[in-house]
Design brief:
Keywords: Membrane, Transmembrane, Transmembrane helix. It holds the Pfam family TadE. Residues 11-52 form the TadE-like domain. The chain has 140 residues and is an alpha+beta fold. The protein has one domain (34-137). Helix content is 50%, strand content 22%. It is built from 3 helices and 3 strands; from the N terminus they run H-H-H-E-E-E. A 3-stranded antiparallel beta sheet has the order 1-2-3, covered by helices on one side. A hairpin with a 5-residue loop joins strand 1 and strand 2 (105-116).
Protein backbone atom coordinates (compact mmCIF):
# COMPACT_ATOMS: atom_id res chain seq x y z
CA UNK A 1 0.00 0.00 0.00
CA UNK A 2 2.84 2.40 0.69
CA UNK A 3 4.35 1.85 -2.76
CA UNK A 4 1.20 2.95 -4.58
CA UNK A 5 0.73 5.90 -2.23
CA UNK A 6 4.24 7.24 -2.93
CA UNK A 7 3.64 6.93 -6.68
CA UNK A 8 0.47 8.99 -6.41
CA UNK A 9 2.19 11.69 -4.32
CA UNK A 10 5.36 12.01 -6.39
CA UNK A 11 4.19 15.04 -8.38
CA UNK A 12 2.64 16.94 -5.47
CA UNK A 13 5.87 18.62 -4.37
CA UNK A 14 6.63 19.77 -7.92
CA UNK A 15 3.09 21.11 -8.29
CA UNK A 16 3.32 22.98 -4.98
CA UNK A 17 6.63 24.49 -6.05
CA UNK A 18 5.20 25.51 -9.43
CA UNK A 19 2.29 27.26 -7.71
CA UNK A 20 4.20 28.89 -4.85
CA UNK A 21 7.41 29.95 -6.65
CA UNK A 22 5.83 32.81 -8.67
CA UNK A 23 4.18 34.13 -5.51
CA UNK A 24 7.47 33.97 -3.61
CA UNK A 25 9.28 35.73 -6.47
CA UNK A 26 6.67 38.51 -6.50
CA UNK A 27 7.08 38.94 -2.76
CA UNK A 28 10.87 39.09 -3.12
CA UNK A 29 10.59 41.72 -5.88
CA UNK A 30 8.13 43.75 -3.79
CA UNK A 31 10.51 43.70 -0.81
CA UNK A 32 13.45 44.72 -3.01
CA UNK A 33 11.46 47.58 -4.58
CA UNK A 34 10.29 48.77 -1.17
CA UNK A 35 13.91 48.78 0.01
CA UNK A 36 14.90 50.82 -3.04
CA UNK A 37 12.15 53.37 -2.29
CA UNK A 38 13.31 53.77 1.31
CA UNK A 39 16.97 54.06 0.28
CA UNK A 40 16.11 56.65 -2.36
CA UNK A 41 13.99 58.69 0.05
CA UNK A 42 16.70 58.57 2.74
CA UNK A 43 19.32 59.96 0.36
CA UNK A 44 16.97 62.72 -0.90
CA UNK A 45 16.06 63.80 2.64
CA UNK A 46 19.72 63.69 3.71
CA UNK A 47 20.62 65.88 0.73
CA UNK A 48 18.04 68.50 1.76
CA UNK A 49 19.30 68.44 5.35
CA UNK A 50 22.96 68.64 4.29
CA UNK A 51 22.25 71.59 2.00
CA UNK A 52 20.32 73.45 4.70
CA UNK A 53 23.06 72.82 7.27
CA UNK A 54 25.74 73.95 4.82
CA UNK A 55 23.81 77.16 4.21
CA UNK A 56 23.24 77.68 7.92
CA UNK A 57 26.92 77.39 8.78
CA UNK A 58 28.04 80.09 6.36
CA UNK A 59 26.94 83.70 6.51
CA UNK A 60 26.44 85.58 3.28
CA UNK A 61 26.11 89.15 2.14
CA UNK A 62 24.65 90.60 -1.03
CA UNK A 63 28.13 90.37 -2.57
CA UNK A 64 28.72 86.73 -1.59
CA UNK A 65 25.18 85.40 -2.04
CA UNK A 66 25.83 83.79 -5.45
CA UNK A 67 28.92 81.98 -4.19
CA UNK A 68 27.00 80.88 -1.06
CA UNK A 69 24.12 79.51 -3.19
CA UNK A 70 26.61 77.59 -5.35
CA UNK A 71 28.21 76.04 -2.24
CA UNK A 72 24.81 74.97 -0.91
CA UNK A 73 23.79 73.45 -4.24
CA UNK A 74 27.12 71.66 -4.52
CA UNK A 75 26.59 70.11 -1.06
CA UNK A 76 23.17 68.85 -2.19
CA UNK A 77 24.53 67.42 -5.45
CA UNK A 78 27.41 65.67 -3.65
CA UNK A 79 24.94 64.02 -1.27
CA UNK A 80 22.67 62.92 -4.13
CA UNK A 81 25.64 61.43 -5.99
CA UNK A 82 25.09 58.35 -3.79
CA UNK A 83 22.03 57.48 -5.86
CA UNK A 84 22.57 54.97 -8.65
CA UNK A 85 22.45 56.65 -12.07
CA UNK A 86 22.17 60.13 -10.53
CA UNK A 87 21.38 62.79 -13.14
CA UNK A 88 21.72 66.39 -11.96
CA UNK A 89 19.40 67.55 -14.76
CA UNK A 90 16.47 65.67 -13.15
CA UNK A 91 16.91 67.46 -9.82
CA UNK A 92 14.30 70.05 -8.84
CA UNK A 93 15.93 72.33 -6.30
CA UNK A 94 14.63 75.42 -4.53
CA UNK A 95 16.63 77.50 -2.04
CA UNK A 96 15.09 80.34 -0.06
CA UNK A 97 15.97 82.37 2.99
CA UNK A 98 13.95 84.39 5.48
CA UNK A 99 15.27 86.78 8.10
CA UNK A 100 13.89 86.96 11.63
CA UNK A 101 13.82 89.86 14.13
CA UNK A 102 17.36 89.05 15.32
CA UNK A 103 18.66 89.42 11.75
CA UNK A 104 19.34 85.68 11.52
CA UNK A 105 18.49 83.93 8.29
CA UNK A 106 16.57 80.67 8.07
CA UNK A 107 17.70 78.56 5.15
CA UNK A 108 15.01 76.45 3.47
CA UNK A 109 15.77 73.86 0.82
CA UNK A 110 13.17 71.86 -1.09
CA UNK A 111 14.32 68.99 -3.28
CA UNK A 112 12.44 66.74 -5.66
CA UNK A 113 14.04 63.85 -7.53
CA UNK A 114 12.29 61.15 -9.61
CA UNK A 115 12.25 57.49 -8.61
CA UNK A 116 11.45 54.67 -11.02
CA UNK A 117 10.43 51.30 -9.62
CA UNK A 118 12.09 48.14 -10.90
CA UNK A 119 8.71 46.53 -11.61
CA UNK A 120 5.60 48.21 -13.00
CA UNK A 121 3.18 47.23 -10.24
CA UNK A 122 -0.53 47.26 -11.09
CA UNK A 123 -2.36 50.04 -9.29
CA UNK A 124 0.85 51.85 -8.29
CA UNK A 125 2.71 54.56 -10.21
CA UNK A 126 5.83 53.35 -12.01
CA UNK A 127 7.57 56.70 -11.48
CA UNK A 128 7.13 59.09 -8.59
CA UNK A 129 8.90 62.16 -7.24
CA UNK A 130 10.70 61.89 -3.91
CA UNK A 131 10.40 65.23 -2.13
CA UNK A 132 12.17 66.58 0.92
CA UNK A 133 12.08 69.92 2.71
CA UNK A 134 14.56 71.11 5.32
CA UNK A 135 14.78 74.35 7.30
CA UNK A 136 17.74 75.37 9.45
CA UNK A 137 18.38 78.71 11.15
CA UNK A 138 21.81 80.22 10.59
CA UNK A 139 23.96 79.92 13.67
CA UNK A 140 27.26 81.41 12.57
Amino acid sequence: MSVSRSRNCSGIAATELAVSLPILMLMALACADFGRVMHHYQIVSNAARTGAETGAMRKFTTLTRTEWENEVRQAVVEELAGLPDFNEGSLDYALSTTTDANNLATVEIEISYPFTSAVSWPGLPHELDMKALSRVRQFR
